Amino acid sequence: MTEKIVIVGSGPAGWACAIYAARANMAPVVYEGAISEENRLKGTLPLGQLNLTTEVENFPGFPDGILGPELMMNMRRQAERFGARIVTEDVLEVDLKQRPFVLRDSSANTVQTHTLVIATGASANYLGLPSEGVYKNRGVSACAVCDGALPRFRNHPVIVVGGGDSACEEANYLTKFASKVYLVHRRDTLRASRIMAERTLKNDRIEPVWNTVVEEVLGDEVNGMTGARVKNLKTGESHVIQATGMFVAIGHTPNVKFLNGQIETDDKGFVKLPKPFQTYTSVEGVFAAGDVADPIYKQAITAAGMGCKAALDAERYLAEKGIH
Ligand code: NAP
Fold it and tell me: What is the CA radius of gyration of the chain?
């Protein structure tokens, strides 16, 4: 059997696409991702980045805000209600040279499909220091919501690295548990939106450490991470911040590895969308939506909008090809 549409990814782009495709009688299959320790560490568990966040205050329709995981479960339920079929596996390989396309998943099943929507989002970047890898899961994390409540962070100082909305959100969230949060940023102005930046700088449990980068994560076998050596880029001086945790919030990289170079991406890995305002990719019949194809906006609402467009683009493509 050949599916009409397979959607890979389960963030706002994936579910919006599934809702529209299901209502257009395309019987979409959604690969929402596998539930595994590897995916937990990479931040690629089902339901996307919003499932790793707390209050979402800017998604229209929720004047009092909504929790990210609740919003995602609502979208999933809505897609299911209209008949989307959900597979809780990762897609590991695709063959886009054959028609229909062939996908292989993490339980070694294959599926054939006439159209494919890539909605795999992006995952958190790390600094790339060797010492950072040593203390991953023992102090170093890229997800405050996932790990912030662990005993090792309670009533101890922690570090957040970055100056964007994510870093500010993580820093504010961590003040619930940590005795103090050092916000280590390589410049002396935050990139975050004004409302987030103001909230962060007003919080007296957050201490910004400006013009500073992390040189080495410090720790030992018994305690895991105990601190970080940081360097002031203006003075060139280094000092140690005692902290039991470091939360890295320095941006994200698109999840395109499973495509194995078969779709054109830009130099940062974002899927290229050659037709303005549409979701067509370099391969006919393959569409992309959300953060995986968006180097600019990266918002939940823009991802959902792109997911809707991908379903409509795929529907038109199938009609043009006479596939019903
Ligand atoms: P971002 O806006 O790209 O910010 C990344 C931050 O990390 C920047 O401050 C950057 O420094 C710093 N950085 C990057 N590479 C670094 C490195 N190697 N070493 C040290 N610092 C490094 O990423 P984001 O905060 O994840 O946000 C991504 C998008 O999601 C944004 O559009 C944001 O608005 C959105 N978002 C929105 C919300 C919300 O609305 N509630 C929440 C989270 C994210 P520089 O400033 O010097 O470049």
Answer: 21
